[in-house]
Amino acid sequence: MDRRLLLVGLSSSALLGLAGCNPPADNSSGGGGATGAPSSGGGGAGGGSGDSIKVGMYGDMTGDTATFGQSMKKGLDLALDEINASPPLGRKLEVVVEDDRGKSDEAVSAVTKLITQDKVQAIIGEVASSNSLAAAPKCQQEKIPMITPASTNPEVTRQGDYIFRICFIDPFQGSVMAKFAFSSLKARKAVILSDLGSDYSKGLSQFFKETFLQLGGQVVAEQSYQKGATDFNAQLNSLKGSNPDVIFVPGYYSEVGTIARQARDLGIKAPMLGGDGWDSPKLFDGAGTALEGCYFSNHYSAESKDERVMKFISAFKAKFAGEVPDAMAALSYDTALLLVDAIKRAGGVESEKLREAIATTKGFAGVTGSITLDEERNAKKPAVVLQIRGKEFKYVETVQP
Length: 401
Hints:
Blueprint lengths: L3 E5 L3 H5 L24 H4 L8 E7 L6 H18 L9 E7 L4 H13 L6 E2 L4 H14 L3 E3 L14 E3 L4 H15 L4 E7 L3 H16 L3 E8 L7 H8 L5 E3 L4 H13 L6 E3 L20 E4 L8 H13 L7 H20 L4 H9 L4 E3 L2 E3 L11 E7 L2 E8 L2
Parallel strand pairs: 2-3, 2-4, 4-5, 5-6, 7-8, 7-9, 9-10, 10-11
Antiparallel strand pairs: 1-3, 11-14, 12-13, 14-15
Helix pairs in contact: 3-11, 4-5, 6-7, 11-12
């Protein structure tokens, strides 16, 4: 199914008409092959200009983790406003968005189409590590630079030297939450409930466990579930018998809320901990107050007093009806601006020169922190720990790499 949206960098008002919490109706009508028409408003900068730079974005716009793709697109929309106000090398940026519905096979189809049909010169995406792992080999084969804003599994960038990320990786994220559990929460017994089919969840579980054990803690039980499950009572009953101090749930928001509610219904009072996959306004669907007081690691805090962060949040809220940007929006925004910085340093979009420019990124000042890419094309960045209070994510601490 082709749910394509071609975003052309025009005026802020033209882009604003394309943005929103859900994909525009003409792009999600189903029926096999509905295609969004190129935007043409705002002074005739039309989508077919031969002087533009075309970039692809792929993500989950309509599937189980749709807020990831929708937030990514919003961050990209905001970045386009800024980029095309002063186009790199005098060439406006066009972005073609493909919906992979959160499915690995469709992620491969999405990037294949972006490369072979849309002729994009770089690709932004995905959020979910499993989908990035599936699509990255095609980008590597075709020598199209791919930058994932948020895929944290370390194997993603090992797919080749055209694959990059601007986020921290799971060995760091897992250790952050293990150290927080052991040192800040004084936990000594942990249990883990992970998504069996998720590379992200399995990797984060591994690194949390390794660090917690090294610190002197015990992982007294482990259980798993399948994506899309709705009944976790059997796993939770098993974990309950271990009387844990903390429950580590490195899954995506689409299941975490239900897991938390069922855990509380069973009388489990231990705090739950998670990773950046919790970050979504939909986290609370089905949870009620069950996540109150729980913690997760993330890429930035909307409570930051950093001038760059506050400026970003102010612009985002002005563009999207007062909405506070989540980490996926912030990471996508940073990714687009970092890519443009690399295009300028490369003097264009010739494949090898652009790859080299991205790879040599050092000290890029992003909303989510200063970004320097290492020899494995991963970003060395701090993480923040956030606590859930009410329906807000409150800053607790920053952990440096």
